[in-house]
Amino acid sequence: MRTLWWKIMALALVLAASITALRTPLAPAIVYASGGPFAPGGNSASVIGYRTHFMAAPVRVFLENGGQFVEASSTVVADDTHLTARFEVPVGLREDMSDLVVVAPGHGAMRLFAAFYNPEKGTGAVDGVTDAPQQGERAGFVFPNRNILYETIRNLNFHVPMWFTMMLLQTISFVFSIKVLGSGRWLDDRAAVQAVNASLLFAILGLITGSIWARATWSGWWTSDAKLNGAAVTVLIYLAYLVLRGSVTDLAKRARLAAIYNIFAYVLMLLFIMALPRMTASLHPGSGGNPAFSQYDLDDSLRPVFYAAVLGWMGIGTWIFNLQYRLARIENRHDEERLR
């Protein structure tokens, strides 16, 4: 029972996070706005919402440009998801793009970033601006509704934990490879390869869930993205590790060669997945200056579900490795008895 609690916890976390990820509704959001460019003077915008209820309560619509807010002079609600707003845009707005902000009771403040182009920039409007609207609060437990992602944001709780688990298992393999160079024990060598085998399972699951996500959001099963290519190269590097092991028959020589290769493979994994994507342009968060797991990607409702999924899947991965390691110990004991 002392070794069983963490396995039960891992299963419970994965089950709870998966059910929550699939069942929790998305927050209301603005998904489209037509109109513009918004030059100074009268301008109209047609707005489309998702899971909104514009008919249920008064709606206020704003433009936000460089910290200055312009409230719509009139708003006409067509139905729960469509409205038209008219703005008297003042002279002097300083930024190229204006955000659209819609405030409705029970919805909070819904923002569509860079909704309208401002063709005549100045140093800041003097007239026609208002104070920032109160943000309000969203009703109920909902996931954030992000542009482009929309319903596919649920996949965050399946796709990303695969890579965290892969990295954990490859770290375990890295540690055992270092131990092989110090001790030369066959058991440590077997543990290293079993950790790699388990990590490749999660790497393949990560590639599959990522490819499905890419098809839904980027309109292609695969794109020329630094992190995507880095993940694929990492999988090939570790598959080559298995090929290297199979090509050497001498057990002692195989253990040392595989350990040395595995140490370099781990460094390359960190380089291709963690370092290079942060220095180059990428569609992924956390790459090319795009912050990962920021307030834009996660909020207070999604964050605990995401971290529960990560911990749960890492526990499942550790459990799989633990079973393989126990099998390796039995095989190692059998081989030692056979050689006596």
Q: How much beta, percentage-wise?
A: 15-25%
Q: What's the total number of strands?
A: 8
> Main sheet: which strands, in order across?
1-2-6-5
Number of distinct helices: 6
Sketch the major β-sheet.
Answer: 4 strands, antiparallel
Low-confidence stretches: none
Give the overall pLDDT as a whole number.
85
End-to-end distance: 35 Å
Order of helices and strands: HEEEEEEEEHHHHH
Question: Which bin fits the share of residues in helices?
Answer: 40-55%
So what's the oligomer here? Answer: single chain
Q: What value does the Rg take, in angstroms?
A: 27 Å
> What is the 3D shape?
elongated
Task: Indicate the structural class.
Answer: alpha+beta
What is the total domain count? Answer: 2
Question: Care to describe what's here?
Answer:
With 340 residues, the protein is an alpha+beta fold. 49% of the residues lie in helices and 17% in strands. It has helices spanning 5-23, 156-183, 186-217, 226-247, 251-279, 302-339, and strands at residues 29-34, 41-50, 60-65, 68-71, 74-79, 82-89, 97-104, 108-117. Strand 1 and strand 2 (41-50) form a beta hairpin. The protein is elongated and about 90 Å long. The model has no long low-confidence stretch (mean pLDDT 85).
